[in-house]
Specification:
The chain is mainly β. It has a four-stranded antiparallel sheet with strand order 2-25-24-23, with no helix packed on it. Strands 3-4-5-6 form a four-stranded antiparallel sheet, with no helix packed on it. The protein is elongated. It starts with 10 loop residues before the first strand and ends with a strand.
């Protein structure tokens, strides 16, 4: 009997994939430009200008930019999102940033006045700044936590207009003024323009969804001129909006169709480029509809006041035609580079003439802006970015950092891409985090735990007194112990065999101000019904190692293991003996003594007292080794990370960050064990000696700390001045 064998189809989807055909953010119809009597500019393009090595391909070309030396960068969507560099002659030079945590769904790329390369990724809600050597210098925005993203798989996203200072939502483009201020078109889910200073500190945002002035319907592209004016391709509203440097509205240019891409000639500075022009692409829609091929695809050359000089090009796939221009570079006003979606290509276009058209001018521009001052602490210190990564290996958000007795440094980081599988009998996640070792100077030594089953979403790392390395993974709900040689010695918790991709309803116990909860958080605990006599709370969840998003681990003098199991549904501390045998647990959801609202960190002193960072309740609770409540203290903000020094007089270092972007308010406190604050240091920001959500602190030495940051993707070594 004949039998048909169907191969198992496994589709790997990025947890943050965002392409949503037919969604509200898609352009309903491309407009015919209303400008009339526009002269044509002669142009030419050579076929196959960009030359890739054998076996290297570009996919949808989303972004293109040049640097001051004429080198060209193409940001594209292939099997992965990738960033390539080419010589001015189109020869392939290298790849930049492969496997970094901010690459998932390319949207645009720009180069600033210092030749730094900025990649805008709408899939990860992240903008990544690379220096000319390809090292990451800064990030803006934050990729959604993989655990939270499970309820927002492809198709579930929509416009929300949250207008957060440091969160972007499917951003589309970036530009810079002469002072280095940063302008981001936050296009699909927020419909706004955001201004940051050169250090990534928020200055201002304007825009909501709509069609009035300073409203946008997909601000898809952005550019600035030498005077600091801002040009926004308001694609859905079929216009270019012109703003001054303070983001005040100045003018609309409504006659050039739907602007998919805009650029201003002359480059980003710093030299005065002289006369500048604005180029606007009325692109052929990305679905390549036959009905619009005759009235789309052209590019307009304009004076900065809106006067149209001429136009060139048409929709099509032949050389010199344009198959959905998604971004343009016009550093040289007579050499235009186009990145095109439909033909998976970029072209170099040479303009041959400068015809003049009847003017329709709009004038009057100004310059403004400023950089807000920072704020220091009262503990004098210095900081240095410590780690030196090999080429093409990148840190992402730092889940945990720690040093062993020899000074060797270990970092557990979210990098690469977390995946979910579809098409088989179970949906499960894999990938997304890596474990690196460095020498005491920060030089890369090796990677540990390659392809470990439980590396999904790094949230913590600790080194025990025997120099074993412990990783804590929020998505896998596992704690893994490695010996100093990198062998797995112990695993606590089990990675879920399947994940619930789209819960039918919101998880129980959630609120706008509380950490995310999985379904099943106990209402009795929230009401105090799970409290036992003597201030001791019975543990929520199944006794044992059935964790729900654990966050930290610590040990007492006997080697007993304490796991902070509190970012999911359990809100407890679980205690095990040194061999991993369950002993006890305590805690529940609530605000009373022995109750928690997001257990983020844990530390144990020399007398085996247990200090718990109760993040949602903004306090530190103290217990004895049996889980009996002893005391609590606050005044340390929202505690995100905590460590205990090892000297004869012990101190806690506690990091505070008011928001998950780590930019609103942040500092690190030095605290006595009775809760009295000794001092504080640091501030929110992206510069050295500033911290972008300090998620992990190592304080083996009281006067030298290692601080791992979630939003700045780095580790700083902090040294206190004597």
């Amino acid at each position: 009997m004949a039998r048909r064998l169907w191969p198992l189809l496994v589709v790997l989807l990025l947890l943050t994939a965002v392409w949503r055909p037919g969604g509200a953010d898609r352009l309903a119809a491309q407009s015919r430009a209303t400008a009339t009597n526009v002269a044509t500019i002669a142009h030419a393009a050579g076929p196959n200008f960009f030359k890739n090595p054998p076996g290297i391909y570009t996919g949808e070309n989303m972004g293109i930019a040049t640097n001051s030396k004429g080198n060209i960068y193409i940001y594209h969507r292939a099997n992965e999102t990738r960033l390539f560099e080419y010589t001015p002659a189109g020869a392939f030079v290298r790849e930049i940033g492969r496997g970094n945590y901010g690459f998932a769904f390319a949207h645009s790329v720009r180069v600033d006045a210092q030749d730094n390369i900025w990649a805008v990724d709408e899939g990860t809600d992240t903008i990544v700044k690379f220096n000319p050597a390809g090292q990451i210098l800064m990030t803006i925005g934050r990729r959604e936590d993989p655990v939270d993203a499970l309820s927002n798989m492809a198709g579930a996203g929509t416009y929300h207009g949250r207008n957060e200072k440091y969160g972007v939502a499917r951003p589309t483009d970036i530009a810079f003024d002469q002072q280095g201020n940063i302008f981001i078109a936050d296009g699909y889910f927020d419909s706004r323009v955001v201004k940051y200073d050169r250090n990534g500190r928020f200055i201002k945002a304007v825009g909501t969804r709509g069609n009035a002035n300073l409203q946008f319907n997909t601000p898809h592209s952005i550019a600035t001129d030498y005077q600091g004016n801002v040009y926004v391709g308001d694609r859905g509203n079929a216009r270019v909006q012109v703003l001054d440097n303070d983001l005040n509205w100045k003018a609309n240019y409504p006659n050039v169709g739907n602007p998919w891409a805009v650029c201003v000639s002359g480059g980003p500075g710093p030299a005065n480029p002289g006369k500048q022009y604005l180029y606007v692409s009325n692109s052929w829609p990305d679905s390549a509809p036959a009905g619009s091929v005759d009235f789309t695809g052209e590019v307009y050359k304009m004076e900065l006041d809106g006067t149209i000089v001429g136009k060139f090009g048409r929709a099509g796939k032949a050389t010199g035609e344009f198959a959905t221009i998604h971004q343009m570079d016009c550093r040289d006003p007579n050499v235009i580079y186009t990145a095109e979606i439909n033909d998976w290509r970029s072209q170099k276009i040479l303009l041959k003439g400068q015809p003049v058209s009847p003017p329709a001018s709009v004038g009057g521009f100004g310059l403004g802006g400023g950089i807000p001052p920072g704020r220091g602490g009262d503990l004098p210190f210095t900081a240095a970015e410590l780690l030196k990564m090999p080429a093409d290996t990148f840190l992402g958000p730092i889940g945990g950092v720690g040093a062993n007795s020899k000074g060797q440094i270990f970092v557990y980081t979210r990098t690469g891409h977390p995946y979910a599988t579809l098409g088989d009998n179970r949906t499960f996640s894999h990938g997304g985090s890596r474990l690196f070792q460095f020498d005491p100077t920060g030089k890369f030594v090796r990677e540990l735990g390659q392809d470990v089953y439980g590396f999904n979403a790094a949230i913590g790392l600790r080194i025990d007194p025997q120099d074993n390395v412990w990783t804590i993974d929020q998505a896998a709900s596992q704690v893994v112990k490695f010996d100093p040689d990198g062998r797995v010695l112990l695993v606590l918790g089990r990675k879920p065999e399947a994940i619930n991709v789209r819960p039918a309803s919101a998880p129980a116990g959630t609120s706008a101000d509380a950490p995310a909860r999985q379904a099943g958080a106990g209402a009795a605990g929230a009401a105090g019904g799970n409290q036992a006599a003597g201030g001791r709370a019975r543990g929520t969840g199944t006794p044992g190692s059935s964790f729900s998003q654990p966050s930290d681990v610590a040990w007492d003098r006997a080697g007993n293991i304490y796991v902070a199991d509190g970012l999911g549904a359990n809100n407890r501390i679980a205690k095990f003996d040194k061999d991993g045998r369950f002993l006890a647990h305590w805690g529940s959801t609530g605000t009373g003594p022995g109750q928690f609202n997001g257990v983020k960190a844990i530390a144990i002193d020399a007398q085996d007292n247990v200090y718990v960072a109760d993040m949602g309740n903004k306090r530190i609770q103290v217990f004895d080794a049996q889980g009996t409540f002893k005391s609590e203290f606050g005044h340390v903000g929202t505690p995100r990370a905590m460590c205990m020094t090892r000297g004869s007089t012990q101190y806690l270092y506690i990091s505070h960050a008011a928001d998950e972007d780590g930019m609103a308010d942040a500092r690190i406190y030095k605290v006595r064990l009775d809760g009295k604050i000794v001092g504080q240091f640091g501030d929110a920001g992206k510069q050295l000696e500033q911290f972008g959500m300090a998620n992990s602190i190592d304080c083996r030495s009281e006067n030298e700390l290692l601080i791992g940051e979630m939003t700045n993707w780095r580790v700083q070594r902090v040294t206190f001045k004597k």
